[in-house]
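Hi support team,

I've been running sequence recovery on a batch of backbones for a student project. Most finish fine, but this one hangs at about 90% for roughly twenty minutes before it completes. I'm not sure whether the input is malformed or the queue is just slow. I've pasted the C-alpha cells below so you can try to reproduce it. Let me know if you need the job ID as well.

Thanks,
M.K.
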C-alpha cells in the first residue's frame, strides 16, 4: 500500500512532527510513503518523493 502526504497552505507548528509520526507508523506496517511536492499542483503532476 502507498500513502501520500500532502500539505497545503503555510507552515504550521508541529507539522514536521506530524509528518514524521505518519511516516514512522506507516513504515512499521510495511507501507510505502510518498511526499507530494508543491501541494495540489504536485499531486496533479505526480511530483513526488519517497519519504523515509
Amino acid at each position: 500500500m502507498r500513502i501520500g502526504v500532502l500539505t497545503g497552505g503555510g507552515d504550521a507548528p508541529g507539522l514536521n512532527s506530524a509528518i514524521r509520526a505518519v511516516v514512522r507508523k506507516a513504515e512499521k506496517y510495511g507501507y510505502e510513503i510518498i511526499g507530494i511536492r508543491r501541494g495540489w499542483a504536485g499531486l496533479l503532476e505526480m511530483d513526488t518523493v519517497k519519504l523515509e
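--
Follow-up from support: It reproduced on our side and the slowdown came from queue contention, not your input. The chain has one domain: 2-50. No action needed from you.
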